[in-house]
Design brief:
Largest sheet: 8 strands, antiparallel
Helix content: 10-25%
Strand content: 25-35%
Number of domains: 4
CATH class of the largest domain: Mainly Beta
CATH architecture of the largest domain: Beta Barrel
């Protein structure tokens, strides 16, 4: 017992001695065990510039904060999930094409669950949310996260693959909707904010200006795009483009990019088109498109003394409103319902935003003589694209039989031969037909039509194997043969813009010819 007491006393004395030595070294400025001597430092006590010297910038910053604070609560993050059956010991060789998506396997159900991210904006007091159709198309579950962190299940009210808009509904009281602005009044140089969920970072705000308006929509005549330099990245899809009054003037939908990220060229669906689509989806359950039933080309400005603006009719679809108005090939449409027509895109937008079954007047020039005709816009028929008169080709397709792709068995892995290679006039790009099975494997939205990139070289490095080319310089390409015809007419030394779908991400790719 005594030995134990002596041992404990010795330990206590030793601990006290070590502690005293440690305190002594600290007081003498010695270094801590494993550290270094303390450094003397003095922080700056004053700013380098007085606030009154940058009062305008300070006010701008304050106003920008107020604007952002007012709109961010109405922007939501959208998370979707979809179960995709898989087979044991089989890998889809195109998994690496999926972008902005998180995948994991459920071992019990032997399925791959794909979780995608997107953005949306609340636009009604009842909880309706606008987003892009490709964000929520063909998914099993939709969940939205609100500004305060609350998550709610959302119901898909309706969507349209061509205009790429969808309407969701969330049952949540006291939501704060944003007002639609007038996109027709937007001008290049207007200040804008882009709000969304890029790469999963909620409530990200970027600013910029309207770079241009009236950029052609690659797949639909329902409205044309606004172009902005506000940074838009994957995950921003469906988020709003906001003006200085906190109004929605567009829905972010696509980018031009060499890297897959923002390069200062983004596109938004104008708010007037969005509003029309929203009301059509809520009232009719689908988007109602009006049409005239003509093929046309824009006249060069100043082509003649009497015609400075307008679009020339190349052909008229039988049985269409244009045919009923007795419009003829060669007529030049100068005014639509009293509004000046300066280009094909303007006329197309006017038609899309006009109420159906209402009498409208067209001011035209026929063989140099002005005249007025009347008609009523009708709903565009389902087979409108196939009923259109064929455009003359400047160069006939290549002679000889065309190679046919082998249609893959939906139950077998996708192999190299499932993508039929085919040389094209765009150097380094080989394409094949987009079959339904291949579209399913590449997770392409149902509304996408085009050709699949099967191989590229360094000259076309922005494209990747598995991309779907929908348009070349605004001309749709729905087959390899049609792709050949379009690229055969391209300037071999020019710059070409391709509309591309990479999985559920749709963007533009700019290529410069190597020739």
């Amino acid at each position: 017992m005594k030995n134990l007491l002596k041992f404990l006393l010795f330990v206590g004395i030793l601990a006290a001695a070590i502690s005293a030595l440690y305190d002594y070294r600290l007081k003498q400025g010695g270094s801590k065990p494993g550290g270094r001597a303390a450094e003397k430092y003095t922080l700056a006590a004053a700013a380098t510039i007085e606030p009154k010297q940058v009062a305008t910038l300070d006010a701008l910053s304050s106003e920008r904060r107020a604007l952002i604070t007012s709109v961010v609560p109405s922007v939501v993050s959208i998370r979707t999930s979809k179960k995709m059956p898989i087979r044991r010991q089989q890998m889809d060789p195109f998994e690496f094409f999926y972008r902005n998506q998180r995948q994991f396997r459920n071992p019990q159900e032997q399925a791959m669950v794909r979780a995608s991210l997107g953005s949306g904006v609340i636009v009604t007091e009842e909880g309706h949310i606008i987003t892009n159709n490709h964000v929520v198309d063909q998914v099993d579950e939709i969940e939205i996260q609100m500004h305060d962190g609350r998550t709610r299940k959302a119901r898909l009210v309706g969507g349209d693959a061509l205009v790429d808009l969808a309407v969701l509904k969330v049952d949540e009281p006291n939501v704060k909707p944003l007002k639609f602005g007038d996109s027709d009044g937007v001008q290049a140089g207007d200040f804008v904010l882009a709000v969304g969920n890029p790469f999963g970072f909620e409530e990200t705000v970027t600013d910029g200006i309207i770079s241009s308006r009236g950029r052609p929509n690659r797949v639909d005549g329902f409205g044309d795009f606004l172009q902005t330099n506000a940074a838009i990245n994957p995950g921003n899809s469906g988020g709003p483009l906001i003006n200085l009054r906190g109004e929605v003037i567009g829905i972010n939908t696509a980018i031009i990019s060499r890297s897959g990220g923002s390069q200062g060229i983004g596109f938004a669906i104008p708010s007037n088109s969005v509003k029309n689509a929203l009301e059509s989806l809520l009232k009719q359950g689908r988007i109602i498109r009006g049409y005239l039933g003509i093929q046309m080309r824009t006249l060069p400005r100043g082509q003649t003394d009497s015609i400075t603006d307008g679009v020339e009719v190349e052909d008229v679809i039988p049985g269409s409103p244009a045919a009923e108005a007795k419009i003829q090939p060669g007529d030049v449409i100068q005014k639509f319902d009293g509004r000046q027509v300066r280009s094909f895109t303007e006329l197309r937008t006017m038609v899309s935003q006009t109420e159906l079954n209402r009498k409208i007047e067209l001011e035209i020039v026929r063989q140099g003589k002005p005249m007025t005709v009347a008609t009523e816009l009708k709903e565009q028929p389902v087979d409108y694209q196939t009923a259109r008169a064929p455009r003359p080709q400047r160069q006939p397709p290549r002679p000889g039989p065309q190679p046919q792709p082998r249609r893959p068995d939906p139950d077998e892995p996708l192999e190299e031969d499932d993508l039929q290679d085919d040389e094209t006039a765009l150097a380094g790009i080989e394409v094949g037909e987009l079959t339904p099975d291949l579209a399913r494997r590449l997770d392409v939205p149902p509304g996408v039509r085009g050709v699949v990139v099967t191989n590229t070289d360094g000259a076309a490095g922005e494209l990747r194997r598995g991309d779907v080319i929908e348009e070349v310089n605004q001309q749709p390409v729905t087959s390899v043969a049609e792709y050949r015809r379009v690229v055969a007419d391209l300037d071999p030394t020019g710059t070409h813009v391709l509309s591309v779908s990479r999985g559920r991400t749709r963007s533009f790719v700019v290529l410069r010819s190597s020739r």
